[in-house]
User: Which sequence fits this backbone?
């Protein structure tokens, strides 16, 4: 990436982009102030002008990855109005993102979103909005929405984690199993929504 010129001094966004580049090259273990500084060709203290260490850097990068993921998700689901098609396409888009960007996906899904943090809350809200589209329902109770979010995350993120770990070793196609799971997930979501 190279050191920014004096006229174009280092910004938070430069640091975030360098961190993302490191993760894409080397995996999530490359997310750290020292590694990102090497990527930028600078000394680590220059990064501390923008972030108070690895935890703050990790948060900024995870939130930036969520924004990329959501943009990708919106593009793939933009013209879908039927709920089960939206869920299936969204699930496949999530899996495709995880396959295309495994390090970024792991950083994103391993970051603990805190509802009382405004930046994390916006990610949670965006996820809730996607689910409301899937359910074609703006009047879900918060309890039902939380249950559905947890179930959908457990199913989709759990499947992807097992697949990335190489633990799905039986002979059946994981693509076929994933699609069956998405169909079953839609039925389970409808159960929660209507009961």
Assistant:
């Amino acid at each position: 990436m190279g050191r920014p010129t004096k006229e174009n001094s280092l910004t938070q966004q430069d640091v975030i982009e360098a961190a993302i580049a490191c993760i894409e090259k080397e995996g999530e273990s490359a997310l750290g102030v020292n590694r990102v500084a090497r990527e930028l060709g600078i000394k680590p203290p220059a990064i501390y002008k923008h972030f108070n260490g690895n935890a703050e850097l990790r948060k900024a990068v995870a939130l930036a990855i969520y924004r990329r993921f959501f943009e990708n998700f919106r593009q793939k689901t933009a013209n879908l109005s039927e709920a089960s098609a939206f869920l299936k396409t969204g699930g496949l888009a999530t899996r495709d993102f995880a396959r295309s960007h495994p390090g970024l996906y792991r950083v994103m899904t391993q970051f603990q979103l805190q509802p009382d943090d405004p930046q994390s809350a916006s990610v949670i809200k965006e996820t809730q909005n996607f689910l409301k589209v899937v359910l074609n329902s703006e009047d879900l109770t918060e309890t039902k929405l939380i249950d559905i979010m947890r179930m959908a995350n457990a199913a989709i993120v759990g499947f992807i984690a097992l697949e990335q770990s190489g633990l799905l070793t039986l002979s059946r196609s994981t693509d076929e199993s994933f699609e069956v799971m998405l169909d079953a997930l839609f039925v389970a979501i409808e159960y929660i929504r209507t009961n």
Summary: The chain has two domains: 1-51, 61-194.
